[in-house]
Amino acid sequence: MRVLFGELSEIRKRQLRYGALAAAVLLLAAGLIILTHHTAGAPASSNAGRRPTNMSTASTSATAAPTGQSAVSASSDEPAVISARQRDEAVGLIADARRQASAGNFSEAEASLKKAEAAFPQMPEIEQARADIERLKTPEGNLAAQLARARLAIEHNDPATAEAALAEASRIKPDAPEIAEMRGELQAAREKAAQRETRIADALARMREAVARHDFAAADSALNEAERIDVQDPSVRRARGELARARGAQQNSQN
């Protein structure tokens, strides 16, 4: 009976030890499983939550950028070229309208403005030109325009145009003091032009005398003097060709 109890006690002790060991093994395995799941599962879910967001944002940006760029290029290149062409055409037509109105051709001026509106609708300069032309239709506006035209012609040595503008101004308001003042300026310009022509004629005469003496150095000097007075004068340009031919003939005769 004592042996059986001792064997039973030993068996019980052994079972308890095995049970405790098994429990420790189960707890360790469970802890490893939980730790592995926590370390592997949590970051993976975090990365999985972040990476698609970044990738979708990048892909959205990559997709949107070319679309935006193409939209900008499409909206800034083609319309800008067309608008510039239309503006140039409209500006030219407005200038034509102003010239036509200054000459008294108001119907032609209005036709030019309508063409400008067709080329560039609602262009502010068109309405400004129309308002200015309307003022030209009044006696005061027309008088101011003719006086400005006369002054510009005097400054550019165009006495015929200046005289025509002053005649039109006299028709509008004969007693305007500006007309008498402008006629004085025109007369002074005519006298100055006459003096200039006299000086040019004298220089060219001395050039031809030098050519007759075969003194081409003196001829060049006289012609240069005439060019300094007015290089655009037709008689001066003709004299330059005349001198070149005379020099060429002299060289041929010497050869």
Fold and architecture overview:
The chain is mainly α and 255 residues long. Among the domains are: 81-136, no CATH class; 195-254. 90% of the residues lie in helices and 0% in strands. The chain has nine helices and no strands. The chain has helices at residues 2-76, 78-102, 106-119, 124-136, 139-155, 159-172, 177-212, 216-229, 234-254. α2 (78-102) packs antiparallel against α3, α5 packs parallel to α7 (177-212) and α8 packs antiparallel against α9 (234-254). The protein is elongated, with a radius of gyration of 51 Å. The N and C termini lie far apart (165 Å).
Name some characteristics of this structure.
mainly alpha; 9 helices; elongated; disordered N terminus; 255 residues
Percent range for β-strand residues: under 5%
**Overall pLDDT, averaged?**
77
Label the overall shape: elongated
Uncertain segments: 1-8, 24-82
How does the major sheet shape up? none
Number of strands: 0
Q: What is the ordering of alpha helices and beta strands?
A: HHHHHHHHH
Which percent range fits the helix content?
over 70%
List the helices and strands and how they pair.
Elements: H1 2-76, H2 78-102, H3 106-119, H4 124-136, H5 139-155, H6 159-172, H7 177-212, H8 216-229, H9 234-254
Helix pairs in contact: 2-3, 2-4, 3-4, 5-6, 5-7, 6-7, 7-8, 7-9, 8-9
